[in-house]
Request: fold
Amino acid sequence: MLSAVPLGSWPLWLGFVLFIVGMLALDLGVFHRRPHVVSLREAALWSAAWVALSALFAAGVFLLYGSQRGLEFTTGYLIEKALSLDNVFVIVLIFSAFGVPAHQQHRVLFWGILGALTMRAFFILAGVALIARFHWMLYVLGAFLVLTGVKALVASRAPPPHPEDSVVLRRARRVLPVAPGRETEHFFVQVNGKRMVTLLFLALLAVEVTDLIFAVDSIPAVLAVSEVPFIVFTSNIFAILGLRSLYFLLAGAVQKFRYLKTGLALVLVFVGAKMTIVDILHIPAGVSLAVVAVLIGGAILASLVADGRRRALQERTATS
Reply:
């Protein structure tokens, strides 16, 4: 293992934050300076780029900080990436409910992710500080993840709640002046000299609330893998930054992954159990990575097989 800057040092944090700011500026200021409909080819290229950058970063962690930290980053990234797949289901519903046009969807996701970065940084630092100060918080978070996973297993076939049924959005409509009509080109408009929010802004608020809800599950799940703030933060951020391109790549196909929610629920149960028994049985990072990969990969494969059989049955029925 080569000598490296300590994982908790400020130059490492500063360098990573500057890298993220530079990538976001390049994304919005160069490639998406003008709103446009994101094609499948563009989404695939950006998805591949983010996966490649994440793989390079993981390789750097393996090389500079050893296999333990490398496996922790990879497992955390895989968990967060898988949970972000579930997020795509809800974002599709949000954009449909608020009538967000295709050429504005990237813009909403861009600003939504900026808010998500801030929220997740706060949650991660708070979670690590709580665990460091109160060791018993491990058991609380672990039990929470197990209960969340079991609840998700029970409700895996239930449709997601409608975005406008959110308590936050209902209260926002009461407090914020919402412009009449279906303005979807701006977040704010002037109506009779009064500044008002638009449906596009409410869609952005719904995306932020959704990420907040998902962060409550995903961050404890990654904390079950690593208690190093830099590892938890970077694995989260790399997965979240790839969410926009992943959305445009999978938005039309998310319904095919019928067993994904079940697989994600089992992941939450596993990492929650791992957290609660950490003082009794230590599960190596490599084993955790293998279990998570099998659960997610198995859910996706089972979904694709079931979808293929369904289409084959429909074709046979149509021709008979």
In short: The chain has a mean pLDDT of 80. The longest strand covers residues 188-191. DSSP finds eleven helices and two strands in the chain.
